[in-house]
Amino acid sequence: MSASSPLLAELIDALRCLPGVGGKSAQRMAIQLLERDRGGGRRLASALEQAMERIGNCSRCRNFSEDEVCAVCANATRDPHILCVVESPSDLAAIEQATGYRGQYFVLLGRLSPLDGTGPEELGLHALAARLEEGEISEMIIATNPTVEGEATAHYLGRLASAAGIRATRLAHGVPLGGELEYVDRSTLAHAFGGRQAVE
Amino acid sequence: MSASSPLLAELIDALRCLPGVGGKSAQRMAIQLLERDRGGGRRLASALEQAMERIGNCSRCRNFSEDEVCAVCANATRDPHILCVVESPSDLAAIEQATGYRGQYFVLLGRLSPLDGTGPEELGLHALAARLEEGEISEMIIATNPTVEGEATAHYLGRLASAAGIRATRLAHGVPLGGELEYVDRSTLAHAFGGRQAVE
Ligand SMILES: [Zn+2]
Ligand SMILES: [Zn+2]
Fold this sequence. Notes:
Chains A, B: One of its GO terms (molecular function) is DNA binding. Chain A is an alpha/beta fold.
């Protein structure tokens, strides 16, 4: 059928740039839009074009933003004394959605990875250090991922905070809620065991 | 994070018009395009816009086509004597991909459904009857879906063919290949049992 319409074949192929979308689902998506929701398809085309062209990074926190300063940074009701440092906008989104955090963020857009050429400069750590020197922040929450590179990045961030005389904290590691011990990986379990806490 | 960028929030929302895409995957798709594949995102925007605006239906078979007559109908190497009637472009695609069929198609873009106001007119059955009258077609393969409405449509199509003196055939029903009998639904199994064939 794609053979009957080059434009349809092109649409099916272009849909495959979406994560998790293979040939079968791309075909289903394209046909469903054409058959039942051309308005939705047009709106998606326009939203994609606008987003790809106009979304850059906030000059203060490096999160996605089409404005010079993003809405989170510009929000006067958020606590200016706590700064949460994350690797990516997705991590920021996860924290916003799962927690009641009302402080500020700084997005590294990566993690220290000397082999890939990602050093402090690429992660905006000079800007972060300058921000810590401003004196308004009293706690820096380090929320990098629990991977080797994330841990190395966390270590570096900890030194930055300590140089600025700021308290640094990390997300707690441990057994995930609802997880069964026998299915928790060994290092998480060892960590949770070593960090056991007194029952009140 | 979507709170930090209205354009991103709009993109996440617009992505949900795609079948099978909920809020979580829409967010993942939007962020991945922004972080890693803006070229792919722009190409998708343009493919969507072109497809939604320019793809109509072939005047001969009603399949999707941006041209007056689609590439399948215009393909002189396909057998003009066999016509396969399907409900939707997706069914046509499934047959093209699964079988070696090299005849022509007619796409109903629906099925008879008096309650929804879908009658012979909406399914283009006058055009189909006219085509059968042209005298070139010797076999009409009825490939509507094995649903109540599909069966009613098949019945109607069979009468059209018979009025034009054309042999009508239907796809064989039976136990799916690789299926286990105990998991096959009862009516399929009953049908397969009743239609049992001699072993050669
Ligand atoms: Zn910001
Ligand atoms: Zn055609």
